[in-house]
Design goal:
Layout: E1 3-7, E2 10-15, E3 19-21, E4 24-26, E5 37-46, E6 50-59, E7 62-70, E8 85-87, E9 92-95
Antiparallel strand pairs: 1-2, 1-9, 3-4, 5-6, 6-7, 7-8
Organism: Qipengyuania nanhaisediminis
Domain DUF427: 3-89
GO molecular function, one term: transferase activity
Length: 96
C-alpha cells in the first residue's frame, strides 16, 4: 500500500514503507520532500516515544506551522520510528 501526504495542493511525502504508530503514518526520511520542510523550534514530549522535533510545511505559497514531527532520539520502545516524519494540522494522509 502506498501512502501519500498532501497539503495545499502539493505532495509532501509518498512511501509504501510507512510505520503506523498511534494512528499516524511515519514516513521514512528519504520519502519526504525536504524542500517543503521549514525547521521549527517547537518540541513536545511523549512519555513512551521521547522528545519530538517539529517542522512547518511550505507548500502552495503558504506555511502550515508545526505540521510535521519526528523523533531524532526516540526512547527504546519507539526506536523503529527514529527520524521518520509524521504529519498533522490539516495535512491529508491518503492510503492508496
Amino acid at each position: 500500500m502506498t501512502v501519500t501526504a498532501l497539503w495545499n495542493g502539493e505532495e509532501i511525502a509518498r512511501s509504501d514503507e510507512t510505520l503506523v504508530v498511534e494512528g499516524n503514518h511515519y514516513f521514512p526520511p528519504s520519502s519526504v520532500a525536504r524542500s517543503a520542510l521549514v525547521p521549527s523550534d517547537k518540541t513536545t514530549v511523549c512519555s513512551w516515544k521521547g522528545v519530538a522535533q517539529y517542522h512547518s510545511i511550505n507548500a502552495g505559497g503558504d506555511i502550515n506551522t508545526d505540521a510535521a514531527w519526528y523523533y531524532p532520539n526516540p526512547k527504546d520502545a519507539a526506536g523503529e520510528i527514529k527520524d521518520h516524519i509524521a504529519f498533522g494540522n490539516g495535512v491529508e494522509v491518503v492510503e492508496e
